[in-house]
Amino acid sequence: MNAIKLLWRSTPSRSILFNYNTTRLASAATITPIQRIEPPPSTIKLDKLYKRVELEMRGIDPAVLLSYSWFCIAAATHLGIDVTKSWALRKAEKERHTLLRCVHIYKKHRVQYEVRSYFRFIHLQRLTGSTCDTYLEYIERNLPEGCALKVTKIECQTIPDHIKPPVDEK
């Protein structure tokens, strides 16, 4: 009971708060008039449209590439993007380097190193610019180590003014 009385006594009364606020408002030096807000310019920037976006994934581990391609397809379906094709090359691209064990002599003692690169491809169709940017940023941030991603965009554009349709002469 004493704790409640102490809490009640420590809080200021409403009349003190009211007087404080009125003195603060009265002490304001100048009041600026309300200014009319001008509307933004009427030029509307249209979003880009992409006919197709091609993703080329390259890596050294085929299991990681397969998992990442599943992730990319799942992310595309959640965003409502049409995935038309998804495939992989049958064989890996091999890059061989031959080196001598000893720099000076013994040409018959050589060592061969091989690097294999695996590829996966995904084609996406009918994307807007904002959806494409969001999707690509998301999958680029989740790109696993040992993998590379190459993106090719095919943009839809309007026909230029200097090109005119053919005129039928009859």
From TrEMBL:
Q: What is its main location?
A: mitochondrion
State the Pfam families in the record. Ribosomal_S10
Subcellular location field: Mitochondrion
Family of the protein in this entry: Belongs to the universal ribosomal protein uS10 family.
**In what residue span(s) does the Small ribosomal subunit protein uS10 domain sit?**
54-152
| The protein's name in its UniProt record | Small ribosomal subunit protein uS10m
Which UniProt keyword terms apply here?
Mitochondrion, Ribonucleoprotein, Ribosomal protein
Q: Output the Gene Ontology cellular-component terms.
A: mitochondrial small ribosomal subunit
Gene that specifies this protein: LOC112053990
